[in-house]
């Protein structure tokens, strides 16, 4: 009886926490970086929290609140983005974006490809590990795979593995 109660509670917690099941990893220069907020996927495009990723790439990031503009500077490259605008300026030249940068709880999100292209950095997507590789190679993916596997491990999931029965797993699959 106690095992069933624990398994049912764990199943309900898992259903209410779908973010545990998947997240997007960001790898820069062969290292998976920790983000204060998760990257998001929209229409097949990965949008990153600009400041966290750009600063990990060695950029200076400035927010101009009056105009809702983000300025990203690295070496001789200057990128200017306006929230809600599908036009970016890179070194004085305008570039049309597929998805406009947006704000969510004070964090600016931008398609990762815009930043990588403006900084002339190689960019790859690995769907197996849900990893964006910036200036990294697919050989670096063993690191991402280990991080992905370890990030999902938690005492909650270990208890789930111990107490879950096929009926609970069936319930969970039908509930999601």
Helices and strands in order:
Elements: H1 2-16, E1 25-28, E2 31-33, E3 40-42, E4 45-49, H2 50-56, E5 60-64, E6 69-74, E7 77-82, E8 87-90, E9 93-96, E10 102-104, E11 107-111, H3 112-118, E12 123-126, E13 131-134, H4 141-152, H5 155-163, H6 166-175
Parallel strand pairs: 1-13
Antiparallel strand pairs: 1-2, 3-4, 4-11, 5-6, 6-7, 7-8, 8-9, 10-11, 12-13
Helix pairs in contact: 1-5, 1-6
What's the short version?
With 176 residues, this protein is of the alpha+beta class. Helices cover 34% and strands 32% of the residues. α1 (2-16) crosses α5.
Mean model confidence by pLDDT: 76
Q: In terms of structural class, how would the helical and strand content be classed?
A: alpha+beta
The whole-angstrom Rg is 20 Å
CATH C-level class is: Alpha Beta
In percent, how much strand structure appears in the residues?
25-35%
Within the largest sheet, what's the order of strands?
Answer: 5-6-7-8-9
**How would you describe the shape?**
globular
Largest sheet: 5 strands, antiparallel
Number of strands: 13
Q: Look at the structure and name the CATH superfamily.
A: Copper amine oxidase-like, N-terminal domain
Describe what this molecule looks like in 3D.
- Helix content is 34%, strand content 32%.
- By secondary structure, the chain is an alpha+beta fold.
- It has a single domain, classed as Copper Amine Oxidase, Chain A, domain 1, CATH 3.30.457.10.
- The chain has a 5-stranded antiparallel β-sheet with strand order 5-6-7-8-9, with helices on one face. Strands 2-1-13-12 form a 4-stranded mixed β-sheet, sandwiched between helices. A 4-stranded antiparallel β-sheet has the order 3-4-11-10.
């Amino acid at each position: 009886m106690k095992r069933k109660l624990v398994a049912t509670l764990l199943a309900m917690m898992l259903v209410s926490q779908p973010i545990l099941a998947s997240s997007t990893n960001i790898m820069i220069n062969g290292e998976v970086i920790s983000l204060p907020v998760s990257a998001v996927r929209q229409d097949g495009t990965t949008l990153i929290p600009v400041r966290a990723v750009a600063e990990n790439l060695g950029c200076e990031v400035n927010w101009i609140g009056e105009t809702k503009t983000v300025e990203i500077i690295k070496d001789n490259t200057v990128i200017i983005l306006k929230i809600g605008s599908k036009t970016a300026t890179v070194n004085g030249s305008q570039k049309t974006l597929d998805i406009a940068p947006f704000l969510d709880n004070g964090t600016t999100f931008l398609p990762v490809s815009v930043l990588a292209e403006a900084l002339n950095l190689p960019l790859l997507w690995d769907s197996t590990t849900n990893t964006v590789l910036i200036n990294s190679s697919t050989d670096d993916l063993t690191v991402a795979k280990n991080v992905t596997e370890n990030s999902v491990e938690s005492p909650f999931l270990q208890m789930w593995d111990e107490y879950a029965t096929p009926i609970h797993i069936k319930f969970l699959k039908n509930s999601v």
